[in-house]
Amino acid sequence: MLKYITKRLLLIIPVLIGISLLSFLIIHLSPGDPLSLKYGLNPEISPQAKEYMNKLYGLDKPIIVQYVEWFKRILTLDFGTSFIDDRNVLEKIKERLPATLILNILSLILIFVIAIPVGVVSAVKHRTVFDKITTFFLYLGFSMPSFWFALILIYIFGFKLNLFPISGISPWYLEFLSPMEKFLTFLKHLFLPLITLSLLGLTGLAKYTKSSMLEILNQEYILMAKAKGLSAKRVIYIHALKNALLPIITIIGFAIPGLISGSFIIETVFSWPGMGRLAYEAIMSYDYPTIMGIGIISTFLTLIGILISDILYAIVDPRIRV
After folding, report:
1. CATH match of 98-284 with 1.10.3720.10
2. Predicted model pTM
3. CA of 240: how far to CAs of 127, 212, 220, 248, in Å?
4. To the nearest whole percent, how much of the chain has pLDDT over 90?
């Protein structure tokens, strides 16, 4: 098992380098540049000053040279300085990372707590009224764009019912509230973005769980277990669900990057002060250091999620370790 984990950890290194290089090239080859956006409309900035700024930020060097210098700094956790406000990129990310992690971790927990039981029950009660109703809502949620669903929630719960805040993570008067009131206020601000983000993975995982369970329930060893007189709960949750989890575990590796990319949209819609909103602001401003800093951290978190998926898969199915 240790050899397997070590092998998977070593594979992260070339993948991380490849993704970072590709991202770096795409960002720098895209139309526009940060200096034109920042100083282009200022008539007092001379061409000589722009040339000096290009040299100052190293933008006059070949792209590959810029990448190598950037990667060397990344190895020492030096993400550079933001082009927007000249702040340290790592410090900006540290401020925003907790909000993104809270949103994504809680969303993952909510997805698995709801999706797996719904998928199992829907498979056990296949073609019943419950199955037809859940299938309808699963397909509805799966086909619904997340930003559109977010706007619907904002309209209903924010404007019409006025139950939950529609933006931010805390109100301006937060410092005047008691600890319990601060916690309840945070939960209110969290509710709408959490529900919206969870929809991205919940419907898909529930469908996969149902499909996997239906396939397992028709296997001969399940029919044999029923014929032996084992209880329905034992057959479903001990014999069937364990084997049905194999493809579900694989989905975990794809759910994490999906949530991270989805949170970019959700954080922007709800003005949630996380890495997604910071990335959007950086992209709109051609802030290369901030974009690459967020990109490399998001890539690392994604690869760690896939590693966890591989480890769980190897635990459930020992044949994978060979």
Report:
1. yes
2. 0.79
3. 19, 9, 11, 13
4. 5
